[in-house]
Amino acid sequence: MRFDIVTLFPEFFVSPLKSGLLGKALVKEIANVYLTNPRDFAIDKHRRVDDEPYGGGVGMLIKPEPIFAAVESLPVLLRREVVLMTPQGETMHQKMFQEFAATCNQLIVICGHYEGVDDRVLNLVSREVSLGDFVLTCGEIPALALLNGVIRLLPGTVGKEESLKAESFEEGLLDYPQYTRPPMFRGWAVPEVLLSGNHPAIAQWRRKQQIQRTRDRRPDLYEKWLETQDER
Questions:
Q1: Cα 75 versus chain centre, distance
Q2: How many Å apart are CA 214 and CA 180, to the nearest integer?
Q3: Which of 163, 188, 190, 221 lies 20 to 30 Å from 132, alpha-carbon distance?
Q4: Burial of 211 (0-12, 13-18, 19+ CB in 10 A)
């Protein structure tokens, strides 16, 4: 899968793209990431990419010309999405990552900056995406989260793909509590059922813990999960 990141700060991605499973996936060419700087497409001698907003206001907006030119310079693959990282977009969720991983050959991610982008950039965009209901200094941070969330779902990235099926949000529930050695640490014991070797009992305990944890910590997710159970 090809990822094209349109960013004014390509250096932001250098270290993360070399680290952990993300770095290994790129080495194995499970995914390919390309960084394109809109400043390289600025049309004035000062390579200016921002300007004051019409109508007044605080801050600067990224101009449309360098964004359009940067995106239009990229190869066009079948089944591609052009995503703008913006607080006004749809909040990221696991199903979004699954959809991108399953249906896209190319994901173009435009990182906003300053006070945002000229609204005409939306004519390039097929989807607006947000990390959450808050404002960050740049779109590179949520873009990296999107990149990580999608690439880890591509076949070959995670060693044991079964583990992807049992983690948080895969069924609309949070993950169950997990433990490793030692069985006793500072007075806190591992639940006996996990030491029993009784796998049906362990599976039942884990399911119960998922439901309880989701109900207690994320009642919004719990209500949605209940709706899916009613439909079934």
A1: 23
A2: 22
A3: 163
A4: middle
